[in-house]
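Field reference: sequence -> structure
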Amino acid sequence: MEFNLNRSLEILSSTPGVLQHWLSGLSDEWLYGNEGENTWSPHTVIGHLIYADETNWTVRARKILSDVDNKFVPFNRVAQFELYNDKNIHDLLIRFSEVRKNSLKELSTIDISEETLSRKGIHPDFGEVTLTQLLATWTVHDLDHLNQISRVLAKQYSDAVGPWKSYLGVIKRGI
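Structure field:
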């Protein structure tokens, strides 16, 4: 499938509701369980998504469209540990919903055309990237973390499923 902004918006706008529905009311064992040392829990992922929306996606889109400075600032992929570890999941889910709504509102103020989609910014690791690539990555980033949450939740029952473990790809997959 080629990039299409409306298709991306379908995913980006639904992610907060999916997470709200999925994670609200779960016990701490589910929310703070992870896959071992130096891995993320569902709680950690929500903090990461908040931070990414606050500092990454629309900030970088504006950089790409800037006629003055199109160089990206490096993204701190683990800032959530310092910023959100002490917050409860309910507050994080509400905050993510608000931050995402603001991000999409800001995105809607950008005149997105074939010309703007081909504009380039400078990523600190990858070099030149287009607005299309950034927006497609934002979409897949959401899906990647939904997948991660699913995998982490499933692995909490890795031993409990007994012999069925060999049939459950979500448990067999690596980190």
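Note: The chain has one domain: 5-172.
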